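JOB MANIFEST
job_type = single_chain_structure
chain_count = 1
residues = 224
[input]
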Amino acid sequence: MNRLYRSLVVLRAVVAFGAGLSGLAVSVSVSAAEPTQPAKPDVTRGQAIATQVCAACHGADGNSAGASFPKLAGQHAEYIVKQFKDYKTQPGAKAPARNNPIMAGIAGALNEQDMMNVAAYFASQKTKQGYARDKNDVALGQKIYRGGIADKGVPACAACHGATGMGIPVQYPRLSYQWGDYTVAQLNAFASWQRNNSELMHQISSRLNEAEMKAVADYIAGLH
């Protein structure tokens, strides 16, 4: 079952990438004619790209169907743009800060303007409500999110992501209603350096055990 599930996930991602190639052709072909500084975001253009390239995994409106892919609806546009860039290997670096071959291919086909357009579109969408799945996790999750774990040197998540999980553009993402399993996966990725775009999150995640990760992620899933 796990093998089948992973295969389906990969298939969906590949379909998303393949579908995007034709849709991105116009964008890439005109990139040389664009000004040095990107223009204001074009939400309509962003929606067109999202529909062709992103929808298979993240949903047409940024509300993914399951935890294999994050919800992007309502996420800060500046944060989404930063993640696009983090999937690319930057000058002087040996590898991208976020290692994902599918996303690297998609991000690599987008120019600066298209990144802004897609990000603005997803930021304009409404996140579908989520829920904590295990009532036994709520108390611990709330404690960690709002107060941290002092004896482990874990700060309150709310200090950066806000009391209601709305975050701060560029610096800290919106977490409210995010899939719990996705949040756990990212905490583990930060802890192991598989995801290498936040020293702070590495330090925090590496101090949490699996039960604590699960509890705070489950709490976040219903946070608003």
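[summary]
Residues 2-30 form the longest helix (29 residues).
Residues 59 and 170 are 23 Å apart (CA to CA).
exit_status = 0
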